[in-house]
Amino acid sequence: MMADSMFRRMVGRPLQLLGAIGLAVPLLFGAAAQAGEAVPYCADPDWPPYESMSADGKHQGIAADLLALVSRRSGVALRAVPTRDWEESIAAVRDGRCRFLSFLNRTPKREEWLAFTEPLFIDPNVLVTREGHDYIADLAAVGGETMVLPRGTSVEERVRREFPNLRIVLVDSEAEAFATVSRGMADMTLRSLTVAVYTIKTAGWFNLKVAGHLPGYENALRIGVRKDEPGLLAVLDRGVGTISTAERTSIANRHVAIQVQSPLDAWTLTKLLALPAAVVLTSLFWVVKLMRVNERLRVQSRTDVLTGLANRSHLNEVCRSEMERAARYGRPMSIILVDLDHFKQVNDRFGHVFGDQVLVEFAGLAGKALRATDTVGRWGGEEFLILCPETGPGAAFALAERLRRMMRAYDFPNGHRQTGSFGVAPFRDGDSIDRLLIRADNALYRAKNEGRDRVVLDEGSVDLTEPALSRTACPAD
């Protein structure tokens, strides 16, 4: 009756309240799901300790326990559909027998037909080798070795693309991948830390170790829902959002623990557990150490040494990501190219140390003028690039003008006055990074030709949703 009442109230409201109707979809779905049959879903039947199917068709493992929390807190009953293997689970969701997949990474290929919740569980992928193998700080530097992977994993295509120096061998299961390394038939495998520790413990492959960590290869495991089920996605995502970090950790620890099947005296048990404990602790120590080193290297690789801002490589990465998002969702985005006026004369007159200090202080000034969502970096020399997501040309123009005025009024070292020229260009459908940068550079070139110390908007950039503005801003004399 509550669901019927809610439905009558929603239908009775004016249809122009689209936001309210959009909000009601998941609520109505939740009420309907409570009243109706359990939602069928599919899982990987052989992926312990993440998930597996028991002989009687019961979903078990970390994913099953997390889904039980989602079900309880969202009010949606769930029912696992047994399958023979992962490929059959995927096929069952495609043909509608199941409405979602329980635990998987998001990839561009999967996004073509699935929509994803926020991560249920995040776990790093690690390189597992035999005990005698050297620790791997840089996988790109390892040539001629063999990596074994289970079929159908999300990392296979990426590893093949990013590490062509490796020979890839595919097997049918996680256990077979570890066995292949343990028996010397492959040099390494790349699997999740949780699965690696679990497998080494339970299968007794104590000649294996964790020999490295790949930054950016973390498993962000999510629920993947059919794209024609937006209401179900919203309800499940809300349930995922209620799960705390402590609950995730408790569930993972419960499934990775060693299960002793027969009673043993304390001394015998201690001796049996000493070796695997030493292997796991040593491996975890090196994983943590490698993660810290790699994090420092990652930050250094993305940061301009002098100013502490993003460097050109990182700007390219962020710009590509923001352009893809703007294109996918039809959102505005703009960039601002800044050049410090007559900077060569500053270096020639005062020296490069003084010039470097001007660059550093401009970086600090830009950080104060910009919003938290903007990204500013050093594009090269005395040029800086500002990326402005969710920003049309008018707003980007105003932002550049604010920074220009702050810069013009600022006391640089020794009372030096430094101005800048600004070129603004908005993202257009079909733009490449190069095309967008060329338009911003052309606007910057006009600003310099027209006398410097001014903001110029790219020719032809008109934002009909924003107040009319001049395409050129310069200081009042």
Please provide a written account of the structure.
By secondary structure, the chain is an alpha+beta fold. It has a domain at 303-457: 2-Layer Sandwich (Alpha-Beta Plaits). It has helices at residues 2-12, 18-35, 62-74, 86-94, 108-111, 155-162, 174-182, 193-203, 230-240, 245-256, 266-302, 312-329, 343-350, 352-369, 393-409, 433-449; strands spanning 39-41, 46-47, 51-53, 59-60, 78-80, 100-104, 114-116, 121-123, 125-130, 146-150, 167-171, 188-192, 208-213, 219-226, 333-340, 375-380, 383-389, 420-426, 455-457, 472-473. It is globular, with a radius of gyration of 28 Å. The model is unreliable at 1-28, 30-35, 258-264 and 463-471 (pLDDT under 50).
The low-confidence parts are 1-28, 30-35, 258-264, 463-471
How many β-strand runs?
A: 20
Share of residues in strands: 15-25%
Count of separate DSSP helical elements? 16
In this structure, how is the largest beta sheet organized? 6 strands, mixed
Helix content: 40-55%
The order of strands across the largest sheet is: 16-17-15-18-19-20
User: What is the CATH fold-level name of the domain at 303-457?
Assistant: Alpha-Beta Plaits
CATH superfamily of the domain at 303-457: Reverse transcriptase/Diguanylate cyclase domain
Q: Radius of gyration in whole Å, from Cα?
A: 28 Å
In angstroms, what separates the terminal alpha carbons?
71 Å
Named at the architecture level, the CATH assignment of the domain at 303-457 is: 2-Layer Sandwich
EC number: 2.7.7.65
Pfam family, one: GGDEF
GO biological process, one term: cell adhesion involved in single-species biofilm formation
Enzyme class: transferase
